[in-house]
Protein 1
Amino acid sequence: MAIFECKSLTKRFGGKTALDSVDLVVEPGRIVGLLGPNGSGKTTLIKLANGLLTPTSGQILIGGQKPGPATKAMVSYLPDRDYLPGWMTSAQLLEFYGDFYADFSSENAAEMLSRLGIDSTMKIRQMSKGTREKVQLIMVMSRSASLYLLDEPIGGVDPASRDFILNTIIANYNPGASVVISTHLISDVEKVLDDVLFINEGRITLSKSVDEIRQDSGKSVDALFREVFKC
């Protein structure tokens, strides 16, 4: 069974169509890049999958179910903005996630925070922006979810930190699960992707494996993206 599926999924905000009859299937065990220019519908799609928005028409399914209370236990979501409470310490954050999510591994999270050299008594607001983004990702990836939805996970960190984040994603997700990564930094994430979805003006314009793209076009995903979406 597909872990994430859309059937003629449409989302409108007033007179603006954010997603237009989207059809897609994400199978278990795949890392998928959701790639498109600004305003193409990436974040809207991820919010719909997480149950934060409701479709105008069509269907979106997580493990065969409509997004709701049951699917929230299946999905681990990283939004594209800083959301951690600044007054919490990293130790309190571990307790909070442990209480909130039955599938959260405090041990895994604590080990990764230790590797970053983060003092457990340090408050979130005392951390640099890049460190907060790493901490957010660690919390998300320390769950044993079926679907990880990561919206711009490396957008705000320096290039030297991107390998840490990508390695964290690869090393910590359940191999039977799937990961959907929305990003503009294609050359950085291409090495970890199995499949690619191009989205533009609310429509899926390409759905292929990375290997198929390289075989069919003779180009990297980054090079093909630049060609397709050049100004």
Note: Strands lie at 4-13, 16-26, 31-35, 57-62, 75-78, 147-151, 178-182, 195-200, 203-209.
Protein 2
Amino acid sequence: MRIKTFTLNSAEEVLHKITREVLTLFRVEITGKGEADYLQMSVVNRRLSENPVRVKTDMILFDREGEGHVYSRCASGSDDEKPSGAVNRIIKLNLYHIFCEDLGMPAAPWGILHGVRPTKIVHRWIRAGMDEKSILLRLRKEYECSEEKAREIVPMAFRQLPFLKTSDERTVSVYIGIPFCLTRCLYCSFPANVLPGEKKLRSFMEAFRTDLMAACNDIEAYGLHVQNIYIGGGTPTSLPDKFFAEMLSMVYNAFYDDSVVEFTVEAGRPDSITEEKVEEMKRRHVTRVSVNPQSMRQRTLDLLGRRHTPEDVRRMFAVFREAGNFHINMDVIIGLPGETSEDIAYTMGEIAKLGPDDITLHALALKRGSRLVELMQERHVDLPAAEEAREMFRVAMERATALGMKSYYLYRQGYMAGDLENVGLCKPGSEGMYNIQIMEEHQTIIGIGGAATSKVVNFREHRLRSSFHPKDLTTYLRDVDKYIARRHELLEKAYGRQ
């Protein structure tokens, strides 16, 4: 739907934000000039009562002849909702019903459940004593979440409970950011740099050592216990062998002991793996690795700019299987350019032959900064339609389930193909503890390295605060002490003496 102008009867930023979320969900474009389906859309919200909170929403659409069409909805909040939260939810729900029921727009799989971590609301209701059936009904009624998605996240949240209970206030995980890749993939918007020369790498390693030792000192000073170590990026294994060994040794010596549950390295791409790196990971007690084909179609890999073949993926997988007791994850992206559900079926079939312990399905998220967005704007690349992307996801889930896997963590991003999600599936007993902890924001994550984020859970204030290391490598190298100080300040507030 294209409209020339839009108005909202409020200056409150949060109301503009939630309204934009609904407009984006239904692909409403505000043109300003040029051809449009409607001259103007106006949204008027009125609070009719306070207890319970009841809100009426009117949408007025002026067609190209200037005639106004009015659509209205009313809804009430629930007894356990904060008034402000209830108002926001009701406005979104009212608009959603108008778009679907009056304007004939197709229902969205997640309804108005917009957040990155939809399972968080399920956990909140579990803590309030609600059972599985009641939560399913509430997701359907209050958020218009589809039956399929509700039945995905509610049992998942209950399965996560034993894992979340392994962590207390002083249990943390460590995330290591290695912001380098051998090449930049077509879809990539991550803060990664094409691998620089040795001089720049040496500068990074020096800053990284300073960063790591400061975090190590804080962990010791505040009596924290490291449950999981996760080395990501970028592609950490893109480092040359000697730098990779140096980095892994620093991390191991700083944080590893017998109480560490998981030690993960994103190995990622076959063109970044050597026998020396595999042996180093084995020697340093790495327990989980990622082997990420994204697709097993060569034409897709070529288009994405990945310098490997499906056969390289198979060889890399075999190397890890033969080397030791590594838990192996494989990533697949849903909605890549030129692919269909048949391509996903092929990719999942090839992956099934290898027998991974864990599969992560990523719905392609279009982000500014990726070459793919530029090519789409230039009309050189087409992506699968939303309906096709959803069928691709259905096929992938069906194939993973046939391997005996169940979903154990999930998160969403903006602009995802088919309004879908990223979901991790695994065989029973192969759940990734770090993945669960970071997605549910139940545990402090201490970020070290380029573009790393620290998420500090302050149990005293029942709040989560974040500090972000710079995405730009030059800034990280120049100002690492400044970002160390910001992280330390959050840790001091959460764990220091009061």
Note: The chain has two domains: 1-104, 166-488.
Protein 3
Amino acid sequence: MRNPLIEVQKHGQSLWYDYISRDLLLSGELRRLVEEDGVRGVTSNPSIFEKAIAGSSDYDPAIQSLVGQGESDAQTLYEALAIQDIQLGCDVLRPVYDASDRSDGYVSLEVSPHLAYETEATLDEARHLWESVGRPNLMIKVPATTEGLPAIEQLIAEGINVNATLLFAVGYYEGVHHAYQRGLARFVESGGDPSTVASVASFFVSRIDAMIEKRVATEFEESPEPDRKAKLEGLLAKVAIANAVDAYASFQRDLATPEWEALAAKGARPQRVLWASTGTKNPDLPATLYVDELIGPNTVNTVPAATFEAFKTGGTVANALCGRGDATLQEARAIMASLDELGIEFQEITDELLTKGCALFCDAFDQVLAAVATKRDALTKNA
């Protein structure tokens, strides 16, 4: 039977599953998703772990065991639980990693979001997590803040796989891609084999359209002119994809530069663009919008469970990014230009989204630590 989840691979895209939990791993469901539905990787973040740990009793035995061994600090307990999950996930995906010659089969683990604005602390934690997990198909997630860029470069220079996350602006994306190339060049200079290092740049999608919707709704309340109102309505559900198309065009341009070609000749892998936040926020939009419209070579889409199932049954598979030549990029740039014409400062939106993204992950991180502490105390009391 036709399975869009697998068909996208014909167009150079890999689908990664945007969820992880102890039950997903131990029940064999992740293995089934890999073997039957073509899942090529897994991503995690503090929000995902908060839902997994706080929302079930699956982690209680592990917490009880760790407490019995003398562990009591909530962050230490959380880290142990997360590392166990990531190791199990890496092991399930190891056949994909091997069969794809290290192109896919990765599981991502994020450094503490509280370190997003601290370069050296990010590096220290990233190295610690890399050593603790001890799997070659691990990717360390690093927020792409100004302080995160030098950390990304340094980790790549040390041969550590990186998932650069929380990208909203094309300019920030370009900074990440250049940091990756500088890191690879340094890795090669130190005698490293660049084919052993992988990286993705996680470019967020749906949150942009959600912000545009809010801006448009605010303007409507102020009763704009009919012509302006029509132009604003024309932006709805279009800006996020246009912005992503612009980022992808930048990626393609970089692959044609002499600097990249020199690295590629030595075995370097492209830092694929990873489309993140691809579940639609607005229930009136097609559930598969941000998957259908962003299929193309050298891309990854990290798909939430509900969107994954929706795409399996009703996804549209085509080379959306490259199938129409320059027309897709021209249309995207026209949409982005209309933002300027309407006086909407897009950089303000992307800067706000980055700040909010870091704050939301910090909140989720604090919540998961609180959930672990609550479970620890309950299990200790009942022991």
Note: The chain has a mean pLDDT of 95.
Protein 4
Amino acid sequence: MPILECRELSKRFGRTTALDRVSLSIEPGRVIGLLGPNGSGKTTLIKLANGLLTPSEGEILIDGEAPGPHSKAIVSYLSDKEYLPEWMTPKQLMDFFQDFYADFDRARAEEMLARLGLDPAQKVKQMSKGTREKVQLILVMSRRAKLYLLDEPIGGVDPATRDYILDTIIRNYNPEAAVVISTHLIADVEPVLDEVLFIQNGQILLQSSVDSIREEKGMSVDQYFREVFRC
């Protein structure tokens, strides 16, 4: 059974169509890059999968069910916006996640904090933007979820931290789960991807394995993306 499935999924905001009859299927055990220009519908699709938006038409299924209490328990979501309360510390945030999510692995979160040299007693308001993003990702990847939805997980960090974050994603996700990474930093994420979804103007242009693109097109995903979306 697909962990995420869209059937003729559309989402409109007033007269603006953000997603237009999207149909796709994502199987467990895959790392998928959701790739497209700004305003292409990536964040809308991720928010629909997380139950933060409702479809205008069609349906979206998570593990065979519409988003709801069942999906909240198995989906781990990283927003492209900062959401951590400024008065909290990583220790308090871990306490909160441990209370809220049955699948939260406290030991894993503490290990990642230590490896990045982050102080569990430092308040969020005292952290740099990059450090706050690291803490958010640690919390998300410390759940043993079935579906990870990561919206721009490496957008605001330096290249060395980028490498660590991608390694963290691959090492810490359940191999029976799926990871969807929305990003515009294609060359950075390409080494960890199994599949890509190209999206533009709310429509899926391509769903393909990374190996197929390399073999059939004779180019990297980054090169092919630049060709498909050339201005």
Note: The mean pLDDT is 91.
